[in-house]
Specification:
By secondary structure, this protein is an alpha+beta fold. It has a single domain (26-169), classed as 3-Layer(bab) Sandwich (minor pseudopilin epsh fold), CATH 3.55.40. The protein has one helix at residues 26-76, and strands at residues 80-84, 88-93, 104-106, 114-117, 125-128, 136-139, 145-146, 157-161, 167-169. The strands form two sheets. Strands 1, 2, 3, 4, 6 and 7 form a six-stranded antiparallel beta sheet that branches. Strand 8 and strand 9 form a beta hairpin. The termini are far apart.
Amino acid sequence: MNQPRPKRAPCQPCQPCQRPQRGFTMAEMVVVLAIGGILSAFVFPKLTAMIGIRDDAWRDNLVSAMRLAHKTAVSHRRLVCVTVTNTTVAMRIATANPSATCNAALPGPDGSANFAVSANAQATTGLSPAGTPAGTLYFQPDGRVTTDGAGASAADRTLTPISAAAITIRGETGHVE
């Protein structure tokens, strides 16, 4: 329902016409700036902490994937190959023993081809020293982590996720730290 506009006072010859004021008062502006300052001081740091939690969760997923690969290789007495990219971990297992290649997919807990997927699309995960192919770890049936599927030489490997502590995998024992 439309309400009629209030009538303006008629203009006097010696006074200018009065129009209703538009905009915000100074008190309203100060209150808005104060609320913005409070939000920036308390809420925004919490949001950046959430990003840190997301990166820690990715590190935890990497650690659990490496431990599962080690345990699977030992319990199945098969070679397990783990391919690590910036945002995914995929596992494959050899169908026979002995074998130098992994030819069957080892699905993740949800049944997908990737064991873990980072929630951070800008995540970077480095693997050193780089294997052949780059980003692949070979867990042997005896628990060792080697530089190739044949298991010629054990090597310590380090996974370095963004904004989180590095993960070390001991070559001779397969222990994940």
